[in-house]
What we know:
- This protein is of the alpha+beta class.
- The protein contains 6 helices and 9 strands; from the N terminus they run βαββαββααβαβαββ.
- It has helices at about 10-20, 80-95, 120-125, 130-145, 160-185, 195-205, and strands at about 1-5, 30-35, 45-50, 100-110, 110-120, 155, 185-190, 210-215, 220-225.
- Helix 5 crosses helix 6.
Amino acid sequence: MTYEFEGxxxxxxxxxxxxxxxxxxxxxxxxxxESQKKSLFKNGYVKIAVHTIEDDEESSMSSSFAAASKVxxxxxxxxxxxxxxxxxxxxxVEKMGYEAxxxxxxxxxxxxxxxxxxxxxxxxxxxxxxxxxxALQLLANIYAGRLGHEEIRVILDTENYRIRREExxxxxxxxxxxxxxxxxxxxxxxxMNPFERRLIHTTLNDIPDIDTKSEGEGLxxxxxxxxxxxxx
Length: 232
């Protein structure tokens, strides 16, 4: 399910969500829909959308891969669940007509399982803006649920795409904010999944004179970067 909450700050909006939904913070993901910084004449305002964990499997991009090198994880499957899951991912890729070595990158006990695909066809498995990789990840999560592990979020990566995409979006956010600040005209970015949109929002949250707002319907929405104080 998806819910919307408001607050003077992102922290206050999240606290409102926790109190009303009766959930722990790690049981849902947050997407910033609109953010307005406090100024001399008006209070700060943040509007968020709260997605319960099961609704965001298809769009999950986790910075856990960035820390994977610090985690000592046996790359071979541990137990029947991991064996079946890795075999499933490998089989799906093979049925697509490609070969890939599939191994575990990191484990967060009872929470997340990071899987890396090593393939000469990585660019195809990633797809445009990572949509093929997201689709494979969604299938892996659905299969994990059928194996009785709905609580575990499976995260797929190849060629460090997740990390590279995150770094690229941060650069895009700063570059766009600079253009908006100079032109005083808003810029609408490409459609992004919830994780990507939140990254843009949080990156620009503390930049003076810049606001951000998500626009559109469905999973892939667009972020508008706005010069504060001008008509939108």
